[in-house]
Write a structure and sequence with these properties.
Blueprint lengths: L1 H20 L8 H15 L8 H28 L13 E6 L12 E4 L6 E2 L13 E7 L1 H4 L9 H13 L3 E5 L7 H11 L6 E5 L2 H11 L10 H10 L5 H19 L6 E4 L16 E2 L8 H17 L2 E5 L11 H4 L12 E2 L1 H21 L4 E2 L20 H17 L8
Parallel strand pairs: 1-7, 4-5, 4-6, 6-9, 8-10, 9-11
Antiparallel strand pairs: 1-2, 3-5
């Protein structure tokens, strides 16, 4: 009886690490429940009596491994310290997605491939990171979700299209490394630029701004929208959540590797019909009952500081850096069918700024970036006035659909060619 009680307690404890830390969106996936079942089976595997000593030792090892997993991961996390790392996408990820539903406006009814190489980047072909041929022009695209483009096919992202246009113009092979990751700000972009120096890039293209001005708005209104204290569940999630652990990361890696290998053999992963349910309760943010009138007088000091560091790094590394302003739906002539889709005014807040406030803030940050780039002698690509705020280009505040990605690719490609970026490379 005591033995059974011990295993029940262990099973409940491990199950708690799943529900306290893993996001509610992840819980809707089969992977979540499969891993939860697998961990519990590993715990109970040592419960029966076995005649085989080897089998008994194996099952005891499995049980101990699963039970020790959260604590081993805490130890490794503490030993590693808080030194910020350059963010990357999920290495080896291969997926196929078909955007569906009213939230995914502007997408053709077709399957798109989203893949990262084993460095966590989307590329336009195989990249030899250890060696760069002299006749190759290597481009890194640095930014957040509007650079990553999770719902656009590998070959149809704006960065891939711009690289193709540059390749045609230069008459040389252009290798693209798209380092975009959702949610990043200028601070993270700086770290990515430093880390990507190991790839020996000739050109870096930056598309950034919206996450920085969102962060600045939120920081300016902490008193009306204070962060929620983590509470018991939050503390458990921070230190004991299974999604931070070494064992789960090993399982995820194994699944990704198997998926990638099958894809290489001609068996692609199943298609995910994605209706972007995460936006379901976030859209129509302009209709929030609590409205605040706020227009910043200047860009945030944090943003200005990191942009300065990025430009200094570009110069020190002798990388041709092109800065691109951020197109958004924040335009006086916004299409009505796009207006209700907005959710970043700012995001995840208990209030909203006015639409006019968002128009002014986007213009402030875009104009500042352009003026700063020109003052410091960097090429600047002003695309935002040329991307109309319609559902032909956006499916929400700033993220591109098929039309927007195609238009952005042409605009950035034209900038690269007109400003002769890469033309003097030997």
């Amino acid at each position: 009886m005591k033995k059974a009680a011990f295993y029940v307690v262990c099973s409940l404890a491990i199950t708690a690490t799943f529900f306290f830390g893993w996001s509610s969106v992840a819980r809707d996936t089969g992977f979540f429940w499969a891993v939860l079942l697998g961990f519990n089976l590993a715990i109970w595997s040592s419960y029966p009596r076995y005649r085989s000593l080897a089998l008994k030792q194996l099952t005891i090892t499995l049980t101990l491994l699963v039970m020790a997993n959260p604590f081993i991961s805490i130890g490794l996390m503490l030993a590693k310290g808080d030194e910020p790392q350059a963010p990357t996408g999920m290495p080896g990820l291969v997926s196929r997605v078909r955007p569906v539903g009213e939230r995914m406006v502007g997408f053709a009814d077709k399957v798109r491939r989203f893949s990262n190489d084993w460095h966590g980047h989307r590329t336009n072909g195989p990249i030899d990171y250890d060696k760069k041929n002299a006749d190759v022009v290597r481009v890194v695209a640095i930014g957040a979700s509007t650079t990553e483009e999770a719902f656009v096919d590998d070959r149809e992202t704006w960065s891939s299209r711009a690289a193709a246009a540059l390749e045609k113009s230069l008459g040389r092979k252009v290798e693209l490394i798209n380092t975009g990751v959702s949610g990043l700000r200028a601070e993270h972009d700086y770290r990515i630029l430093v880390a990507s120096a190991a790839y020996k890039p000739d050109i870096a293209i930056f598309l950034l701004g919206i996450n920085d001005w969102n962060q600045a708005i939120i920081e300016a209104h902490r008193e009306v929208n204070p962060p929620k204290p983590p509470g018991f569940r939050g503390l458990i999630g921070k230190f004991l959540s299974v999604d931070h652990t070494i064992l789960l990361k090993a399982v995820q890696f194994a699944v990704r590797f198997a998926t990638w290998q099958l894809d290489q053999w001609g068996w692609p992963p199943p298609v995910d019909d994605d209706s972007n349910l995460e936006l379901k309760d976030k859209q129509r943010s302009l209709d929030h009952a609590r409205k605040i009138d706020y227009e910043p007088a200047a860009v945030s000091a944090d943003y200005a500081n990191w942009i300065g560091k990025i430009m200094d790094e570009c110069r020190a590394r002798k990388i041709e850096c092109l800065f691109v302003d951020q197109p958004t739906a924040y335009h006086p002539d916004i299409e009505p069918d796009l207006r209700w889709r907005l959710w970043m005014t700012p995001l995840n807040a208990n209030y909203t700024l006015s639409f006019q406030n968002m128009v002014a803030t986007a213009k402030l940050y875009n104009d500042w970036l352009g003026n700063t780039a020109r003052e410091k002698g960097f090429p600047f690509c002003q695309v935002s006035p040329h991307v109309p705020a319609t559902t032909a280009n956006f499916f929400d505040d700033c993220h591109f659909n098929d039309g927007g990605a195609a238009l952005m690719g042409k605009l950035v490609g034209d900038c690269l060619i007109e400003q002769k970026i890469g033309a003097t490379l030997k």
